[in-house]
Amino acid sequence: QNMATIEQRTVIYCSACGMPPEYCEYGPDFESHCIPWLKSKHPQLFIKLHGDKKPKTDAVDGAAADRGGEASPTEPWTTKERLVAFYTKYMPEKLDGIDAILEKYEGKEDKLFMALVKKYGPEPEDPYYLSKYGGGSDDEDDDDIEEGMDGLDINSGDKKKRRGAAAKKVNKVDTRVIIQKISRNRKKAVTHVVGLDTVPGIKLKEASKAFSKRFAGSSSVKDKEIIIQGDHIYEVAEMIVSKFEVGEDRVFLDIDGEFVPFGES
């Protein structure tokens, strides 16, 4: 029995507008985004769809006049030529770093150019597209540019990372650690540590494990309070000062209902 053969086709979608290339021209970003993408990624399809379209007359005449009657370019700029043109316009003193920038942002060239445009201004016109379709709009989609700039450092890499207080903001916390001995009966006691959660960078569960290992007994966390088996108020205070680097004036011992700074006990 003969069976019909179904031809398998691969559908291409424009990464700029999300539509099949046959419908890109009906979108608002056809000239500024879709054409460069299609020409770069699918040149044969570009020629098939748009190769016979006439360029804008006024723009072509103006471009030809600017070039002094030179022939129109046969292909668009390469990525490196685009970057050289951009840096020549805005940052000619950094042209020597072009190769390093291209290597650093390999595979992220689109985001690189979006970030550059956001910071410095519109890209120079590619003579190829200028002669074929005329000048495009300098307006950019701010939301797309902001997204493209996310996590992208467009400097040449010679700027050192900031250090010290200016590098990051730290929320100030009023550190106050109180250590108490609570007797359960005449022979047994436990040591309670309250306020260790106010020490920046301290995780109560990790601190509890450290106390358990140090005193060879049980230690647990309950309601932001660490409970250690045994009477260890002085040893715990000394450990908090030395291991967790809390100032002696921030650690208090509950002695007969009076809170005494560890440094004065």
Notes on the structure:
This protein has helices spanning 30-41, 43-50, 57-66, 79-90, 98-104, 109-120, 127-133, 142-149, 204-215, 233-242, and strands at residues 177-183, 189-194, 219-222, 225-229, 251-255, 258-261. The longest helix has 12 residues, at 30-41. It is an alpha+beta fold and 265 residues long. The protein has a six-stranded mixed β-sheet, covered by helices on one side. It starts with 29 loop residues before the first helix and ends with a strand. Helices cover 37% and strands 12% of the residues. The protein is elongated and about 100 Å long. β1 (177-183) and β2 (189-194) form a beta hairpin. It is built from ten helices and six strands, in the order ααααααααββαββαββ. α1 crosses α2 and α3 (57-66) packs antiparallel against α7 (127-133).
